[in-house]
Each structure stands twice: as structure tokens, then as C-alpha cells.
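Two proteins were folded this term; both appear here.
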Amino acid sequence: MPWPSRKRDKGAVADKKEPDAKIAKTEEETSDKEEEEKSAKPPAGSSKSGWKNWKKAKESESGGEESKITYCHWLLKSEPESRLEKGVDVKFSVDDLKAQPNQTTCWDGVRNYQARNFLRAMKLGQQAFFYHSNCKEPGIVAIVKIVKEAYPDHTQFDQKDPHYDSTSRKENPKWSMVDVQFVRMTKRFIPLSEIKAHHLAHKADGGPLKDMMLFTRQRLSIQPLTQEQFDFVLSLEEEKPH
């Protein structure tokens, strides 16, 4: 593979920054405390009004129809800073993705069953947020799309790879990966702390981020998003940072 595997999932780590990203594309077992501490204090200025105004605009566009509760978008975590795992640097930033041929890469190294199942549910053309995790300021930096649906992850059979799995068999592989391609950078960096503020407000008034897995299942490096969640988070790139 063109770079050290970045996604991993062993149970994962919450952003401790959040290491489950590439962990990047990966998921390790670590404490969620740091992530919670980093996002515990919502920035001033975000609250119910933002959600209500956004909802009103979306209802106007859709004639008042609410989107069905289905997952059609994703959030993929990856570590942008160097970290050695079994002697291999698992760093993989959005710049690393952009440097790949055709700005495309396989999302390998996931070793968490739920995250693997999410990979297997991904469909060609679906979009995902590229999320920098386990770093000084975690958050969303770009949008990618699925360009190849799930197929066996080759790293599970590579004894030199940090994510080698001696229990997996080629005739019945345990782990899967997909290929993703860079679409564009978000218009601005959308930090975890800002998304957290909206999540807390939505828990109170029923907004789309109230059950967002970024806060209910922090350790997962592969997370599904509803259309409403994706649209709301994407709308934040048009706002001035708090």
C-alpha cells in the first residue's frame, strides 16, 4: 500500500484528540477523556437559533418534508500527525491523500467490527467528511467520495503491517476496505468544539446532531451520517468561525 495504513479500529480511541482516525484510518483503545475535555465547553455564539434558522431554510427548500432516517454519508477519521504503531508511522493527513495518484487511496487498517460493517455498507459515489483526529485541534478538513465499494483489506494478510491479523483467512477474510477520492477542501476548518456546541444545543431542541455518532460513539473511526446531519455540518463552512 502506498502509505502506512491509516485507518484502524481496535475499539478505537476517541479523539484525544481522537485517535481513531486513520488512525487513522484507525481505531485504537484509548481514553475518551481528552476529546470530551476539548469539546466540553461550547464556543460562545452557537445555539438553538442556528439550528432553527437552518431547519426553517431547509423546510422551505423541501416543501416541509423531513428526510428519512437513513445513513447515506460518512465521517472518516485519520491522523494528520506522526505516530508510530509497531514501528510504522500511521500518519495520514488530507495532504497525504491529495498527494496520492489521482488523489485516491484505499481506506485500510480498520479492525473494529462495527466500523468494518459501515465500510461494507458504503455505496459508490457517496460522500464523506475527512476528519483529522488525534491532533492538537481535531475537526473536519475536506470532503471525499467512495470510488470503490468494499473489498478485502490486504493489510490483514501482511505480517509486516501493524494491522496484520493472523486469524483472518484469504478464503474468508475478516476485514474490508473501500477506495476514497479527494473531492475538495471544506471552505474552512470545522473544529470538533464547534460541532460539539451544536450537538449539545440539538440534544435540547431535537436538532439533527443530537444523536451524531461523533459524540455517542466517539471511538469509531468510520461513522455514518444522515443526509440531514451531513447538510447541517456542511452548512457550517459558510459561517464565520466562533
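Next, the second protein.
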Amino acid sequence: MSWGFLRDLLSGVNKYSTGIGRIWVAVVFIFRLLVYIVAAENIWKHEHDEFECNIKQPGCENVCFDHFFPVSHIRLWALQLIMVSTPSLLVVFHVAYRENREKHHTQKLYKSPGEIDGGLLCTYLISLILKTGFEIVFLVLFYKLYNGFKVPHLVKCDLRPCPNTVDCYISKPTEKMIFLYFLVATSCLCIVLNLSELTYLIFK
């Protein structure tokens, strides 16, 4: 797949969103998707090749890398982007269902198929709850997998087949940590926007 598909999906959802929802789409597209494509992907591109331990025991580096990076940050970020964008498909499908229903009955059934009311409002609220849930789940997952939101300069590994405790060095740790903080900040911002939109729609 190409990231263009995700961009088109977000653009399609933008038509049926509230003002807060449009800000969420802008944040996801500009501060997450574009940052991922333009910068972050390149930083983690050769992370395994650039992971070095101070011993050349066959298999030691691979085992240590797998232990400290069970899932690549960048692949987890990509999965997060896909998962938090997917619930928006519910809204697109519901609007398509309304439009198809009007064609089938050859009469006007809704004031506007894309207007957020009735069943579409429920679908929209469910999509917001799912997006917020996915954001929180991935933040917790990041925290649990990497023992906090940090990238250490040095890790000590004593797993077999390493003969003793060895020092392993991670490439560009400061740069990676900056992007990790950026990831967490934008994720938190999206959670706030989703909760704000949820509150706005419920009280409206």
C-alpha cells in the first residue's frame, strides 16, 4: 500500500467532520503522517545494522537487539497511524450507505447524507471512542515495551549466546528520543482533540 491511501481516507472523512474533527485530521496528516514519511522513517532505517555490541560473539548482537527492541519504534508508529485512522472508515461507510439508500428509494430520505445526526451521530461517536482507545493502547504499549518513553545511549546485555555482560550501543539515541517525544506529544494532542469533539457532540 502507499501512504497516499491513508491521506485520501483522511481527506474523505474531513467532509463529514466537525471543526474539531478537521483539526484532528490536520494534526494526523501534517504532524504525524508527513513527519513519519519525511523524517522518522529514515532515522530508524538502519537501526539493526547500526546497533553495536563490544563483542563479536556470533548471535550475541541479534539476541540483544531483539530483547531491547522487540518491535521497531517506527513499525509500531506506522501501525498506530493505521489503527487510529481506520475507525474513520465507519463514518465514510455510513455516509455511503445513506447515499446508496437514497438512490435505491429514488427519493430524499435525509436533509444531507453527510449531516451528523441520528444513526450517523452514533457511528461518529463510536469512531471517536475507538480512535481514543487505540491512541491510549499504543501509548501504554510503547511505555511497557521500552520501559518508558526514552532511548538509552547504552544497554547492558547478558543473554545467551553472549559469554558475559556486554555493552551495546544504540545509534542516534538523542535524535530518536526527540522523535519519540514528538510522537507521544502528538498522540496526547489527538486524544485531547477526540475527547473534546466527543464532549462537544454529546452536549450539543
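The chain has a mean pLDDT of 78. The radius of gyration is 22 Å. These notes refer to the second protein only.
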